[in-house]
Structure formats: C-alpha cells, structure tokens
Specification:
25% of the residues lie in helices and 24% in strands. It has 6 helices and 12 strands. The longest helix has 27 residues. Belongs to the DNA repair enzymes AP/ExoA family. InterPro entries: AP_endonuc_1, Endo/exonu/phosph_ase_sf, Endo/exonuclease/phosphatase, ExoIII-like.
C-alpha cells in the first residue's frame, strides 16, 4: 500500500551517502523515494546504496559523466520501468525515470537549471516545451487506464512569490522568470496537475526545500521551494500531510536540498 512518498535532490549521491543520506534512508518511512542529481553511474556507488536492503532501485544516469542522474527507490517491485520520456535530446541526460506501481505511475524528474542569456537557459526552455507535451500525454493515458500520476523532483522553478524568500531580487534570474512561472501555471491549469504541497499549505511562505551554501541562507531560512510533488487530481485529494525534512543545523545537511515528504491517505 502506497502511503508516503519522498523526493530529494541529493547533490551528488556518493558525497551525500558519506554525510548522512544512508542513515536517513535507513530511518525513512517512505514507500517510494525519488532522487535527483545523483551524479554517478550505479557501479560507482557503494553496494548498500546501489542495492539498498528492502528497496527496488531504478537508476537513470546521464550520458555526460558526473552530471544530473535520477533514480527511484520503491519498497514494492515495479510492474514496469521507463527511462526518458521519448525525447531525442534528453532521454540520455539523466533527467527522467518512471515506474508503474498498482494504479499509479511515479516519476523522478530533474528539470534543467538555467542561466539567463546562455545556452543553459535555451536548453531549459527546450526541455520545458517537450516536457509539457509529455505531461499532457501522460495524464491522458492515465485517465484512459484509470491510473494516477505523481511527478516528483527538482523542477528548478519557483512558481509563486511565496515560493522563495527574496522574490523581489530574483525576478530576472533563472528559476523565477515570468515565462518559467507561466509555464508551470500551464502544468497546473492546462495539463491539469496539482501542486500537492501548496494544496496542503495554501497560505504560507515556502515551505522552502533548497538553500544556497553561500552566506547565511540556510540559517536565515532564505530559501526556494523548487522541489515538488505534482499529481493528478485524484491522488492529490488523498494527500493528508506534507513536510520538508529540514536539517536541524547547517552542519547536519547532506545536500543543499531537503527531502520533501508527502503522506497519502490510501493507495491510488
């Protein structure tokens, strides 16, 4: 029975494993864990991370060594798994993996980060254009087969002013550009998905999931909410609790992101 799902950008899994990820995974109550920015081939990972006891692991490393990479860990063996979403440009970039569980498709997504005026931003925009088409198709297919969809990951876009502490200073930076925010609105309004955490926390700042390592961003809670669980409406309605597992202190962090965990009332 699916009950708890966690998504987290690990900012390099080998380093995170040494700093606390392994202990976190051993203690988590999650039924599915979605990882982003793994930045390693499976064979480069310690055996206890590559094949963690009690988990079924799906790895999607990037063709470019040491970059990107996503994974899915599930307590239940997946009925099906898929790497990439049918994109000639992005299917080997380590940015998309999905599994099918009974009645539910779960995706781990690492949407490209960008930088205004550079090829990185152009790459991000190309990804967004293709990915919205896929999201529409995915929801259509799910509706036909009576399934729900859950897309977890680092979307690298803060949707609303409430999703980052210093929104006024970031309006011209990638991650909070008007066109990026408008695209994410299309994911909700046009494709019909639901921002699960925002649904449960409609009127509060954050809760933030990423803090720069620079300065006192973490200590001052000057963060961004860019890690989402985005679901089809039927599953979103089953969400009963959401939290960001923020480290107790700066030196206790094992990533610059924190796990975003949602509890669902019943299996989809």
């Amino acid at each position: 029975m699916l009950r708890v799902v966690t998504t987290v950008n690990v900012n390099g899994l080998r380093a995170a494993a040494k700093k606390g990820f392994s202990a976190w995974l051993a203690a988590t109550e999650a039924d599915v864990v979605c990882l982003q920015e793994v930045r390693a081939e499976p064979e480069q990972l310690p055996a206890e991370i590559r094949e963690p006891e009690g988990w079924h692991a799906v790895w999607a490393p990037a063709a470019a060594k040491g970059r990107a990479g996503v994974a899915l860990l599930s307590r239940q063996r997946p009925e099906r798994q898929r790497i990439g979403f049918g994109s000639a440009e992005f299917d080997t970039s380590g940015r998309y993996a999905e599994i099918d569980l009974p009645g539910l498709t779960v995706v781990s997504l690492y949407l490209p980060s960008g930088e205004v005026g550079t090829e990185r931003q152009e790459e991000k925009e190309r990804f967004m254009k293709e990915f919205l088409v896929h999201l529409l198709d995915l929801r259509t297919q799910a509706a036909v087969t009576g399934r729900e969809v859950l897309v977890c990951g680092d979307w690298n876009i803060a949707h609303r002013e409430a999703d980052l502490k210093n929104w006024r200073a970031n309006q011209k930076l990638s991650g909070f550009l008007p066109e990026e925010r408008a695209w994410l609105t299309r994911v909700f309004d046009e494709a019909g998905y639901v921002d699960v955490v925002r649904r449960l926390h409609p009127d509060t700042p954050g809760p933030y999931s990423w803090w720069s390592y620079r300065g006192k961003a973490f200590d001052n809670d000057s963060g961004w909410r860019i890690d989402y669980q985005i679901a089809t409406p039927g599953l979103a309605e089953q969400a009963v609790g959401a939290r960001v597992e923020r480290a107790a202190s700066y030196d206790a962090r094992w990533s610059d992101h924190a796990p975003v965990t949602v509890t669902y009332a019943a299996q989809a």
